[in-house]
């Protein structure tokens, strides 16, 4: 179906030239003949630049949001979906015909859809490495799947343990390990979260939200010990299609 009206979409983030979203949607618009539809990167160093984008970009219909603005963008929005409110992070914004901004979270949906096929009955608990905006969608999805989770942060708190507290007992209890930090993203592909990789087994799932490189050092280390591994590409595809649905409803 050919669409001829002009509509603009984009990705809000910092240092996002590597972005998946621009390529995904540009290809989609060409393939599905959405003439006049474009997708661009809005790369800003501070969230304070966000109102300028809204003010100066004509025909803007929707945005994806990536690190580090999934939480920081919330005060600039007029409304949040129920799930985005519960999660406390936004990765999709719909701009209404009246110019109102409504925030959604499709990360949780993408993560849930991509993790679900890997789950076996013994996968009852998960460790989430990182406590940023991306980790919140992950936690919400795990809750929906009935999987208990524990956050790991650089500093221990009421809500998280720190990396030094992870030991053999932790690995025995938590058999899904999820990297929701940016550690290991291209170009720093030799970096990985500081955890005892020798404790992975073939009972574990190692899931990395990063998709570039396709196999991060975190995933390589886990795979070497027999763990089932998964990167973030399918999650991104699922969440992008959900965002597209939201922009068009």
What is the topological layout?
Elements: E1 7-13, H1 20-31, E2 37-43, H2 50-56, E3 60-65, E4 79-80, H3 82-87, E5 92-95, E6 101-104, H4 107-115, E7 125-129, H5 133-144, E8 148-153, E9 160-162, H6 168-173, E10 176-179, E11 205-208, H7 217-224, E12 228-230, H8 233-247
Helix pairs in contact: 4-5, 4-8
Keywords: Amino-acid biosynthesis, Aromatic amino acid biosynthesis, Oxidoreductase
Pathway: Metabolic intermediate biosynthesis; chorismate biosynthesis; chorismate from D-erythrose 4-phosphate and phosphoenolpyruvate: step 4/7
InterPro entries: Aminoacid_DH-like_N_sf, NAD(P)-bd_dom_sf, Shikimate_DH-bd_N, Shikimate_DH_fam
Question: What can you tell me about this protein's structure?
Answer:
This protein is of the alpha/beta class and 249 residues long. It has 8 helices and 12 strands. It has helices spanning 20-31, 50-56, 82-87, 107-115, 133-144, 168-173, 217-224, 233-247, and strands at residues 7-13, 37-43, 60-65, 79-80, 92-95, 101-104, 125-129, 148-153, 160-162, 176-179, 205-208, 228-230. Helix 1 (20-31) links the parallel strand 1 (7-13) and strand 2. Helix 4 (107-115) crosses helix 5 and helix 4 (107-115) packs across helix 8 (233-247). The protein is elongated and about 55 Å long. The two termini are 17 Å apart. The relative contact order is 0.13. The mean pLDDT is 96.
